[in-house]
Design a protein that fits this description.
- The complex is a heterodimer of chains A (143) and B (148).
- By secondary structure, chain A is α+β, with helices and mostly antiparallel strands.
- Chain A has one domain: Nuclear Transport Factor 2, Chain: A (Roll), CATH 3.10.450.
- In chain A, 29% of the residues lie in helices and 46% in strands.
- Chain B has 148 residues and is of the alpha+beta class.
- Chain B has one domain: Nuclear Transport Factor 2, Chain: A (Roll).
- Helices cover 28% and strands 46% of the residues of chain B.
- Chain B contains 3 helices and 6 strands.
- In chain B, strand 3 and strand 4 form a beta hairpin.
- Classes of the chains: A alpha+beta (143), B alpha+beta (148).
- At the A-B interface, helix 1, strand 3, strand 4 and strand 5 of A face helix 1, strand 3, strand 4 and strand 5 of B.
Chain lengths: 143, 148
């Protein structure tokens, strides 16, 4: 591999790591519009029985989770992203990672609410990495 | 340092970080064959589960002593790995890593933080790939005597 290719690979892994973190920061800030724009034009989001394709459908689905699966207000819940494993192949990439979901509980204490995994496919679209598919199954509780 | 050496150092850190994440992933999936191949031919693992040297011996020890990790309604657990600090020196490296074990709570279908600890690692480049030369797994909370 040329020096240029090797640098590009490191840059791509870092850009994807940032995309995975932008996902959680938008979600936790309840910037659901910004969150939905992290998906490719035909990007898919899958969580359990829920499924949406494209930024508008993903916005509708996830905005509808406020007050139920997510807190309504930003700052009352946090996703921690851990154990990322990222593989880049040209303009496609895949990743596996874990999510740990913590909410502000009764008595204003942090509560470990759920954990799960992410299984991702990314695409480089207009020069930027986007989610082509994100599956976010819950591991505990079993639902 | 030459540009080549600087680039190589960044690649080495990225590859070792990947090795550390693969360890947790294969362990939680109980893919103990893939897990044991992350160790050097003479690589050692030591911790509360015991001590073993070489991929075959490490695999055999864990197959014998490690409980299964079934999905719900079983006692599912996951290792969360964080805070990696990696120092590379040519074909050798060291790392320290924090780990936490989250599992399904006793009787309750909810996650609980069960154990917290750290790993002390020595890494080596073997056949062009980074592997564990030794990994010592320490449990810090709850307070337990160090493994022999």
């Amino acid at each position: 591999m040329s020096v240029d290719d090797r640098l590009r690979r490191l840059e791509d892994v870092e850009a994807i790591r940032r995309l995975m973190l932008a996902y959680r920061s938008c979600l936790d800030a309840k910037d659901i519009r910004g969150y939905a724009e992290l998906f490719a034009a035909d990007g898919e989001f899958v969580a359990g029985d829920m499924h949406a394709r494209g930024p508008q459908a993903i916005f509708d689905l996830v905005d509808g989770m406020r007050g139920t699966l997510l807190t309504d207000r930003g700052g009352d819940d946090v996703h921690i992203v851990a154990n990322p494993v990222i593989d880049v192949d040209g303009d496609r990439a895949t990743a596996d990672s874990m999510w740990i979901y913590i909410v502000r509980g009764e008595g204003d204490v942090p509560v470990l609410s759920k954990i799960g995994s992410y299984h991702d496919v990314f695409t480089r679209e207009d020069g930027r990495w986007r989610f082509l598919r994100r599956e976010a199954p819950t591991v505990i509780p079993a639902l | 340092m030459t540009d080549e050496a600087r680039l190589q150092c960044l690649e080495d850190v990225a590859e070792i970080e990947r090795l550390i994440m693969d360890y947790a992933r294969h362990l939680d999936a109980r893919d103990l064959h893939a897990y044991s191949r992350l160790f050097c031919e003479d690589g050692e693992w030591s911790g509360n589960t015991g001590h073993a040297k070489g991929p075959d011996a490490i695999q055999a020890m864990l197959e014998e002593r490690l409980p299964p990790n079934p999905p719900a309604p079983g006692p599912t657990s996951r290792h969360v790995v964080s805070n990696p600090v990696i120092d590379v020196d040519g074909d050798a490296a060291t790392a320290s890593v924090t780990w936490a074990l989250i599992r399904r709570g006793g009787g309750e279908d909810e996650p609980e933080l069960a154990l917290l600890g750290h790993y002390d690692d020595v890494l080596a480049r073997e056949d062009g790939r980074w592997r564990f030369k030794s990994r010592r797994a320490h449990i810090d909370i709850p307070d337990r005597p160090a493994a022999p």
